[in-house]
Amino acid sequence: MSNSSEVLRLRPHIALLPSAGMGHLTPLLRLAASLVNHNCQLTLITTHPTVSLAETRLISQFLSSFPYITTNEFHLLPLNEQSIANEDPFFLQFEAISRSAHLLSPLLSTASPPLSALITDISLASAVTPITADLHLSNFVLFTGSASMLSLCAHFPFISTTTQDSILIPGLPQPLLKSMLPPPLHDRSSLFAAQFTANGRELVESNGIIINTFDGIEGNTLKALNEGEVVKGLPPVIPIGPLIPCDQFERSRVILNVAPPTPMASWLDEQEEGSVVYVNFGSRTAMSREQMRELGEGLVRSGHKFLWVVKGKKVDREDEEAVGEVVGGGQGIEEAVAEGRGVVVKEWVDQNWVLGHRAVGGL
């Protein structure tokens, strides 16, 4: 056997299964890039359809940067959304992936060379871990939040009620206030609460939990997790954070602070240092027209230059209105844009790039 063949044979072959939402997808792709740079062979399992165009574009851009990563398409079964008491497209996508998870078995078992492990997003843990167990395939869960949030996730199945003002989690230095919980967790009967509970319960069945944090900021909580104070039987919790933008995938946009030539990027380049207020409530937060009108008026009256990312719908595929239709009616907002005092965009933006731009002085 040649030396090159021996090296290829010894390289671990790892599959990664992303979930829905840019906040879940981006860290997983950064982890994938890091694994490639550490001589791992990778297969990215791409879910079809995705929820948003932003996810589709990001995956396409990533694969263009790493053409030697193998892809395997995972086509979801149709989901009868009318039978589920939830309208959030991302939670419904979690459910669709979970209900189609049995289709993963042939994808995983026929991989060549055979897989060494599967890395799954936390939102899919309860659906995927039993499948990897049946295949005797190591399964690692990627947790994109903090160690404190992981503690809540792992302990949540053992909490009888969330009606108290605070929740005591073993291993954490102080109780979590109820107001700190994601709103969907306040209702234990909600779809997200059910998913969160099931995924938290399944953590003990995984081979390890990879988390986007580091000892320097959450050392005590990580220690509590790994010593069984939060939940007994947890597998190793492995901090690998922060998952920073990688050179090959995001160098052009972040590290060198160069963006594709868009009107937004060109406008930012023309502004004075620290003069622009950046307004963005996240890729999943859709505001009402009244809220946008009030916010628009506030931006105009502030007298500051602004870059405002608006969302009329939670999912960009469904958001067909022009920017003027979404923010129209706000006192002075269209005039401010016309005069170059602000920019309003509807598409997903690279927040790392924006926040790293010299012109942005506040968020």
Automatic annotation (TrEMBL):
The residue range of the signal peptide is: none
The terms under GO molecular function for this entry are: UDP-glucosyltransferase activity
Q: What is this protein called?
A: UDP-glycosyltransferase
Q: Which family does it belong to?
A: Belongs to the UDP-glycosyltransferase family.
Q: Which domain of life is it from?
A: Eukaryota
Query: Which SUPFAM superfamilies does the entry link to?
Result: UDP-Glycosyltransferase/glycogen phosphorylase
Which controlled-vocabulary keywords does the entry list?
Glycosyltransferase, Transferase
